[in-house]
Amino acid sequence: MKKLLSGLLCLLVGIVVRAAEDPAVAKLNDILQKDWQQHKLAEVPQAPDHVFLRRIMLDIKGIQPTPQEVKRFLADKSPDKRKKLIDSLLKTPEYADLLAMRYSDMFRIKSEFPINLWPNAVHAYHHYFLDNARRDRSFYTVTRELLTSNGSNFRVPAANFFRAAANRTPAGLAQSTALSLLGMRYENFSDDRKKAFEGFFQCIRYKSTDEWKEEIVYNDINSQVVKAGTPDGIDFTINAPETDPREVLADWMTSPKNRYFARAYVNRVWSWFMGRGIVEPADDMPLPETFWDKVKLSSPAGQQPSNPELLDFLADYFTETNGSTAKLIKLIVSSKAYNANWKTVKEQQFLAEQRFAAFKVRRLDSEILVDIICKVLDTSESYSSVIPEPFTYLPRGTRAVQISDGSISSRMLDSFGRPPRDSGRISERKRAIDDSQRLFLMNSGWIYNNAGKFPKRWKNKRMNFNERVDFVYLNVLARPATKQERELCRKRNKAMKKTWVFWGELVWSLVNSKEFIYQH
Length: 520
What we know:
Strand 4 and strand 5 (235-240) form a beta hairpin. A 3-stranded antiparallel sheet has the order 1-3-2, with no helix packed on it. By secondary structure, it is mainly alpha-helical. It contains 25 helices and 7 strands.
């Protein structure tokens, strides 16, 4: 009788949850499941709560959950607790910090060579994206501001869009704009489309002021007829300066009818959370004349064809929500793809990751990894620039994801693949683990010595052996230890002559584990 009642209760809960499911999430899941069925992929179970909690907090906040947050989430039995968690995380200041870091990579926020924005402009430009993230301003509105702003690059932050490029000729600005906003490689354009796209930028001028490193971005005031055109073959004849060519470009770029812009943005955001784009590389979208042929029929060598229906659905949703990045992220992380466990049938593992049926395991981004190492070891990293000009003193405790300037870094950040922000390409960020990184984690005296101080945290606290083991696991791996792990720890502790050394070595070994280093 109890089993029957339990089964009925689970069925009712499932019906209630399904009925309360957001229609957009339901549609997204239907598209994903249809694709999985077509490829005969085994159903991957939902990731356990502790795995999901760490995953979502690292992806949205760049921070691991605290032991208290882990215990509270695991104890919560409400069916909509994941939805509530997502809603709460998207309102945190740490979410804005991490999203601003993504934009800083995308738009090359760097004070020194080859971008040469200089410190004042860097801070203004970074704060612009930080404020936009906090307020969830429409990315359509932001894009129009980036394309059309004039004025001081210190006082009109969006004007730095035309400053933050190594090459500020019309060709260089066309290249950076195509990459950042359309996810397309300008060098792949035909010669006539290159020349046409450059036309939008041929009236842009720069002039210095009496203030150190300040520049004014403005349009040429001389009358001229500008021939310009978009990558999809629409040509314009523009009378400047009566009409700003960039306004014409902004009208085309942010039009709801422009599917290339929406597809490029949602594909990039999808890659932030799923480890790869629907079209891969996420910033190398096919050109208009071959777009659907290439999306449907070809992808880079060794990869499966893409999912056009999924890409268009996300683009439509992005347009319907007026370019809300927060709503797009909420949709993605609410999907069965994001909530899935990472492991599936061995023979299907690669294909399941390609089709987003299983969560793709990946090494944590350098800034996030450094931040959580510092958090676990209760210490901090110091950051500086190899060039003395930028003001590089950062307060103790500054998180790596909060660093505005691509010229300010550390040996550990660089070692783990922080992008230099020279080109704005996604490939600048290195996510693969290599031997130098492993050697650093295993041999660093800084890590080992700080790990040895961990037992100070339970000084004057009454905790038995198992409670201490759980305390370590909750702080390092964001989950309680298993029964087997507690037993192994007990045996190791007994075998050591200096038992006080055991706790530092346990922390050190967990920091070196794949479970800690990888997003899973």
